[in-house]
Design a protein that fits this description.
It is an enzyme of class 2 (transferase). This is Aminotransferase. With about 400 residues, this protein is an alpha/beta fold. The protein folds into two domains: about 140 residues, Aspartate Aminotransferase, domain 1; about 220 residues, Aspartate Aminotransferase, domain 2 (3-Layer(aba) Sandwich), CATH 3.40.640.10. Helix content is about 45%, strand content about 15%. The strands form three sheets. A seven-stranded mixed sheet has the order 2-8-7-6-5-3-4, with helices on both faces. The protein has a three-stranded antiparallel sheet with strand order 9-12-11. Helix 8 links the parallel strand 5 and strand 6. The longest helix has 22 residues. The structure holds 4'-deoxy-4'-aminopyridoxal-5'-phosphate and glutamic acid. The site of 4'-deoxy-4'-aminopyridoxal-5'-phosphate (PMP) has 13 residues, from helix 5. Glutamic acid (GLU) binds next to helix 2.
Length: about 400
């Protein structure tokens, strides 16, 4: 008997998590590795959030199951947060809380996909989307974007791949891995196209608070009532509040879809860990000062490291506007070093330069590598210096 299902045999491991694990294993062996793999802030969770969590443990509130779809107080906090940052106020039945944005993405796909349904994904895309769609018997339909159009998809490209099976389009702005941020007119065009053709918009807004150098995050769901009704927003506290380990995500959308996702939550994870929910309430509506401090730190790192990376022979980089990744095109660098495969090139950088980054292959990009700058400036400068030495050697 074959033990494993066809489904799991066809799945890829998350390349980001795998790259992070590999770097950690090499470091544990005593190797001198600089880690630019995982997209997670190097800051610890702000004190006020830690204290709210500790209080919920000490006063006994965190001991118990909560309502599967999330504590009413947390939904209220999400709602207040939305009023401030999205300009509209979702009701409790518009909100479901879950174990990380990642699991809620999965719950969305499980809730809407029938076998063979198509979800349009602009490439480069975050690594987990395609596999999650396939795990739910859907078909990812990739639309290529490149440096020439700032990695942004156009309505013409979407229309060219739309079929009767098109169920949803994925929009991740600011984007992981490219850091690009869509502008209002671009979003309006995509939003109106989706409404016209009854295509759901999956808006992964997880980097919305992390935009730099004057760029503005405009939530597509805030553009019009019709677009909002067509959209399921995924967000969470991992990135903006330095809370990746707490695993808090939330989704905001139409009640029917939210109820379906809540049903999936109730039959899989039950509620998100209670202590994390209490922490998230403080994150979303408590003092927001630390978010700005961290945002400024990321901006400074970007502005320092971007020009240095541009000087690495063979690296061509579009300057990101948000998130915390650089996504250089290394086609010329690969040619210079005699590589044709970007994963082999990424491995060589790890082995020979001691810099751990993520191959673009998992993001649907065969000429790029991803470097996370959610780490301290000294490490970043040293890493870029090592890349330069590697390329010049
Ligand atoms: N979406 C994107 C684009 C991401 O980069 C991440 C990173 N983990 C997630 C969703 C998931 O976030 P989390 O599960 O930590 O809330
Ligand atoms: N989203 C982060 C990244 O892209 C964390 C890893 C993951 O969840 O895959 O690195």
């Amino acid at each position: 008997m074959t033990v494993l299902s066809q489904r799991v045999l066809e799945m890829e491991e998350s390349v980001t998590l795998a790259a992070g694990a590999r770097a950690k294993a090499l470091k544990a062996e005593g190797r001198d590795i600089l880690e630019l793999t995982l997209g997670q802030p190097d800051f610890v969770t702000p004190k006020n959030i830690q204290e709210a969590a500790i209080a919920s443990i000490e006063n006994g509130k965190a001991s118990f199951y909560t309502i599967a779809s999330g504590l009413p107080e947390l939904k209220d906090a999400v709602s207040q947060h939305f009023e401030q940052f999205y300009g509209y106020k979702p009701a409790p039945n518009n909100i479901v809380v879950g174990t990380g944005a990642k699991f809620l993405l999965y719950a969305f796909f499980a809730a809407v996909i029938n076998p063979g349904d198509e979800v349009i994904i602009p490439t480069p895309y975050w690594v987990s989307y395609a596999d999650q769609i396939k795990m739910n018997e859907g078909c990812p339909v990739f639309v290529t974007t490149t440096e020439e159009n700032d990695f942004k998809v156009t309505v013409d490209q979407l229309e060219a791949v739309r079929t009767e099976k098109t169920k949803a389009i994925l929009l991740n702005s600011p984007s992981n891995p490219t850091g690009m941020v869509y502008e209002r007119a671009e979003l309006e065009a995509i939003g109106n196209w989706a409404v016209e053709h009854d295509v759901l918009i999956l808006a992964d807004d997880i980097y919305g608070r992390l935009v730099y150098n004057g760029a503005e995050f405009i939530p597509i769901s805030s553009l019009s009532e019709a677009i909002r009704k067509q959209t399921l927003v995924i967000n969470g506290v991992s990135k903006a509040y330095a809370m990746t380990g707490w695993r808090v995500g939330y989704a905001v959308g139409e009640p029917e879809l939210i109820a379906a996702m809540a049903k999936i939550v109730s039959q899989t994870t039950s509620n998100l860990t209670a202590v994390s929910q209490y922490a998230a309430i403080e994150a979303l509506i408590g003092d927001q000062g630390s978010v700005e401090e961290m945002r400024i730190a990321f901006e400074e790192r970007l502005n320092t490291i971007y020009p240095l990376l541009c000087e690495v022979p063979g690296f061509e980089v579009v300057k990101p506007q948000g998130a915390f990744y650089l996504f250089p095109n290394v086609k010329k660098a690969m040619e210079m070093k005699g590589y044709t495969d970007v994963t082999a090139f990424t491995d060589a950088i790890l082995e020979e330069a001691g810099v751990a980054c993520v191959t673009g292959a998992g993001f649907g990009a065969s000429e790029n590598i991803r470097l996370s700058y959610a780490t301290d400036l000294d490490t970043l400068k040293e890493a870029v210096q090592r890349l330069k030495t590697f390329m010049e050697g």
